[in-house]
Amino acid sequence: MILLRLFLLLFLYMLYPKHTDKETPANQIRPKSGVFDHERLEVYKMELEFIKWVPPLIEDSAKSATGRPREVCDQLDRASLSSLLNTAEGNGKRQRPVRAKFFDDARGSATESAGCLDALVAKGIVGDDRIAHGKAMLLQIVCMLSGLVDRFDDSVRLREEPLEYRVSATEEEQNTRESKRKRQTKV
Questions:
Q1: Where are the beta strands (DSSP E) in the chain?
Q2: How many whole angstroms separate alpha carbon 99 and alpha carbon 79?
Q3: How far apart are CA 58 and CA 103, in angstroms?
Q4: Per DSSP, which regions of 8-162 are E strands?
Q5: pLDDT by residue (tens digit) across 79-88?
């Protein structure tokens, strides 16, 4: 008798699992694709390309006999990484204003990177031709990030002023209409 009850309970347990397809346990949740959302952003891909471009520039700058490149190169390395990381973190946020803030911070870091490239030229460490490709990448990055900021920053959106709607005309408008009707009937 006890064995029959245990068998029946086991059978019911197998027949009716504790969770449904809609409620999968946390350890069974699978992403829809094998990449994070930020990895699909074109701006993120371009920031990665810029980060790959920076180390050879830093190595060339370190070999330079003129100027003191270490501080500028360190700042360039930090700023380029900051832009990438803020983009990734911002794309993971759910609230629109928070996303906009992270994309804006990323844009600031990208413009800081451009400033570092200008500083390398101003100090005579590298020439304009050496940084031209990096500046072109940064310009595209800043433009794309500006678009993301505009897309998620609700304070920038255009809004119409609220209008007061009336169901009936004012007394003055009613008098004007009546006088027009009287003139039209006289004709």
A1: none
A2: 19
A3: 26
A4: none
A5: 999 999 999 9
Residue for token digits 């039209």?
A: 184
pLDDT at 24 over 60: no
**Mean pLDDT, rounded, for 21-27:** 53
Backbone angles phi, psi at 181, to 5 degrees: -65, -40
DSSP state for residue 123 in the 8-state scheme: T
Residue 156, classed as helix, strand or coil, is helix
Q: Distance between CA atoms of 176 and 187, rounded to whole angstroms? A: 17
**Is the distance from CB of 72 to CB of 120 less than 8 angstroms?**
yes
Return the CATH fold of 42-155.
de novo design (two linked rop proteins) (1.20.1440)
pLDDT digits (tens, 9 = 90+) for 91-123: 999 999 999 999 999 999 999 999 999 999 999
Can you give the pTM of this predicted structure?
0.67
Beta-carbon contacts of residue 183 (< 8 Å; ≥ 6 apart)? none
* The two structure tokens encoding residue 47: 């920031």
**Which sequence spans correspond to the domains of the chain?**
42-155
Q: Is 124 left (phi over 0), alpha (psi -120 to 50) or beta?
A: left
* Pairwise CA distance, residues 141 & 79, whole Å: 13
Q: How many residues does the chain have?
A: 187
